[in-house]
Amino acid sequence: MLSAQVKEHQARQASKRIIQEQKRKEAIAAANDLTQALVDHLNVGVAQAYLNQKKLDAEAKLLHQGAINFAKQTQQWLCLVENFSSALKEIGDVENWARSIENDMKIITDTLENAYKITQEKPTTSQ
């Protein structure tokens, strides 16, 4: 009778251990599932942030390249404007030189005309 109770007790203990082991396995599986779900949820945000960062990096590179191209174009425009300004100065210098020559020629022409008039008037007054 005592040995029957011990065997019955051991059988109940064994069945409880089996049930506990099953519940432990279920709890571990549930914890793993929960952990995986949390990680997946966090990974979605991280993945989105990573994609956004990649897009931002690409945009920044494009912007940087655009700024470099703009600086080159600006430098070319500055050179063109400087050359144009120099050409205008030269034209202004030539124009000033031409005006100077024209004024000198007018003075010479006026002087010659006055000299001619004077020489024409002398013979008429001496007669």
Automatic annotation (TrEMBL):
GO terms for cellular component: BLOC-1 complex. GO terms for biological process: endosomal transport. InterPro entries: BLOC1S1. Transmembrane segments: none annotated. Pfam families: GCN5L1. PANTHER family: BIOGENESIS OF LYSOSOME-RELATED ORGANELLES COMPLEX 1 SUBUNIT 1 (PTHR13073:SF0), BLOC-1 COMPLEX SUBUNIT 1 (PTHR13073). Belongs to the BLOC1S1 family. This is Biogenesis of lysosome-related organelles complex 1 subunit 1. It comes from Eumeta variegata (Bagworm moth).
